[in-house]
Amino acid sequence: MALARTPNRRNSSEDPEEFRATLGEHLDELRSRILRVAGFFVVASTAGWFVAIPVYDILQGIAYKSIPKWLNYQEVFRTFTDPFMLQLRMAITLGIAVSLPFAVYEVWGFVKPGLKSNERKPVVALLPVSCLLFLLGCWVGWVMVPPTIIWFCSFFNSFKGSVLYQEPGTMVFLLIKLVVAFGIGFQLPIVTFALTKIGVISSSGLFRSWRHATVAIFVLSMILTPSGDPFTMLAMAVPLTILFFGSVLAVKLTTKSDRDDEDHALNNLD
After folding, report:
1. What does the DSSP 8-state code read for residue 167?
2. Distance of CA 201 to the CA centre of its chain
3. How remote is the C-alpha of 52 from its chain's centroid?
């Protein structure tokens, strides 16, 4: 009679066929990983509560510098509970930012034992590129914050004597959304590269449908940019289009085409 293996031995196996966990063992491991991520998030959010105000002041100062001096700008709380809720939102946001890498690590730890060695290599190879593109996108989003605010504030010139009263946190969370949106958007080349590598889509087909792909990228950029202005949308869509076709070209150069395989087979027959 075969003895059941404990779930913690899954991570020591290099071949997923050497260990087949039962459904209950999978669920137990998944639950334990979810609990670890949840616990890490609670700790990170609790710590974020104590640094939420200093971080908010830094981000608010960056956004406030972009507001024209001639514009009468003031932030106003609507209810007496709003300051508490704003600090709580900042703490949760910081908790998510800090715990996200740990959550990705736990997801990889759960999925990794079920992959063969040749299936793990592409993921390991693409992970540094994905992180680099995410940071690059965040940087582009950070750079786009001042011109986005200036562009919107320019419309106040059409309404003489108007002032800007808004809730505290509006500027800060717009900044955060822009940075995160650009970071997520810059993952498109990784998704495209992966889909073409596994054969879901072909590089030649994407090149033939470049017009449709470009329109799709612009629509995606319009959805991802929280401000919705054309200036920010173009700032995301143009580099995404370049990165998209660059990733397709990389797949085309690193993958043998069907014609090359046929020529190789004919040469062997000769």
Report:
1. -
2. 22
3. 22
Distance CA(175)–CA(263), nearest Å, equals 54
Residues 6+ apart with CB under 8 A from 168: 60, 75, 76, 77, 82, 83, 86
* Burial track 64-94 (b if 16+ CB lie within 10 A, e otherwise): eebbeeeeebeeeeeeeeeeeebbeebbbbb
Residues 6+ apart with CB under 8 A from 43: none
Residues in the chain: 270
Q: Identify the burial level of 229 via C-beta atoms within 10 angstroms of its C-beta, where 0-12 means exposed, 13-18 middle and 19 or more buried.
A: middle
Model-level pTM? 0.73
Rounded CA-CA distance 85/228 in Å is 26
The Cα-based distances of 201 to 102, 121, 207 in angstroms read 31, 20, 11
Residue-wise pLDDT for 59-76, tens only, equals: 998 888 888 888 888 889
Question: Beta-carbon neighbour count of residue 181 at 10 Å?
Answer: 22
**Over the stretch 153-173, which tens digit does the pLDDT of each residue have?**
888 888 888 888 989 988 899
